[in-house]
């Protein structure tokens, strides 16, 4: 479904990602792990097209996306919940969700019920400004905005960062529901091992901008964790 091949990307003079190759199959939850600053967000941005690849290829559903715009990638069915959420503070909660509809493949007028079903608090806040919501509520809004386009691939960049435990549990439930439904694949960058182990099917570990390890849940043992993830 998603294939990243020998990707190189960076900022200005600095090369951050080198020779990154990974795959996400339909319906799979693939987790991207690694210590702070190894390049997880840079990889997410490169897959979404917010950051241009310098070398290598990003393909989605067998289509070469490497030179396509982020909007184009969204229209092909890639949803993105960026790190830090990037809610439009001055727009209302409703307008923020509507922005997700803009990315839909077909021109839809109504927010799909499934996009907000897991976040019942959001409709009660539709007229409030996005910037007035708490961090956890903003994260729910970022999910709803991404789900409004009914993506079949969802990029989640550290969705639990700075979020209170009850909302983390809600996010876990949403990911599990998406997984059980089987229609949307997920690439999840996350620091919390406990969280990724509870939802992930397959794991990649980034170290200094390259894939240093990959494997299934059973092989993500204490030795791997100590070697690549312990700070
Ligand atoms: N806009 C930018 N300009 C220059 N360098 C950047 C920029 N964004 C990130 N970097 C650098 O790229 C490297 C990788 O950062 P990135 O945010 O991708 O890592 P990460 O694994 O997502 O880290 P974290 O878990 O802390 O979010 C870091 O050294 C960071 O300082």
TrEMBL record:
Keywords assigned: Amino-acid transport, ATP-binding, Nucleotide-binding, Transport
Keyword DNA-binding assigned: no
Record field: transmembrane: none
Domain called ABC transporter: residue spans: 2-231
Keyword Transport belongs to the record: yes
GO terms of molecular function: ATP binding
Gene3D superfamilies: P-loop containing nucleotide triphosphate hydrolases
Entry similarity comment: Belongs to the ABC transporter superfamily.
Annotated NCBIfam families: urea_trans_UrtE
Name of the protein in question: Urea ABC transporter ATP-binding subunit UrtE
Species per Swiss-Prot/TrEMBL record: Paenibacillus sepulcri
Species lineage: Bacteria, Bacillati, Bacillota, Bacilli, Bacillales
């Amino acid at each position: 479904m998603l294939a990243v091949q020998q990707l190189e990307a960076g900022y200005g003079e600095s090369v951050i990602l080198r020779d990154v190759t990974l795959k996400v199959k339909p319906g799979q939850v693939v987790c991207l792990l690694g210590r702070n600053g190894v390049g997880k967000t840079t990889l997410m941005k490169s897959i979404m097209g917010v950051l241009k690849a310098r070398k290598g290829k990003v393909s989605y559903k067998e289509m070469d996306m490497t030179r396509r715009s982020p909007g184009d990638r969204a229209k092909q069915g890639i949803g993105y919940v960026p790190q830090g959420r990037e809610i439009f503070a001055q727009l209302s909660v409703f307008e923020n969700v509507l922005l997700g509809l803009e990315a839909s493949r077909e021109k839809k007028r109504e927010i799909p019920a499934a996009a907000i079903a897991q976040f019942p608090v959001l409709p009660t806040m539709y007229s409030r400004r996005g910037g007035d919501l708490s961090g956890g509520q903003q994260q729910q809004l970022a999910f709803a905005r991404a789900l409004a386009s009914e993506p079949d691939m969802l990029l989640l960049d550290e969705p639990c960062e700075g979020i209170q435990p009850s909302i983390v549990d809600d996010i876990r439930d949403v990911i599990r529901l998406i997984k059980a439904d089987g229609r949307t694949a997920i690439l999840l960058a996350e620091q919390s091992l406990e969280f990724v182990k509870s939802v992930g099917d397959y794991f990649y570990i980034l170290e200094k901008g390259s894939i240093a390890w990959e494997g299934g849940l059973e092989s993500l043992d204490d030795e791997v964790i100590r070697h690549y993830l312990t700070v």
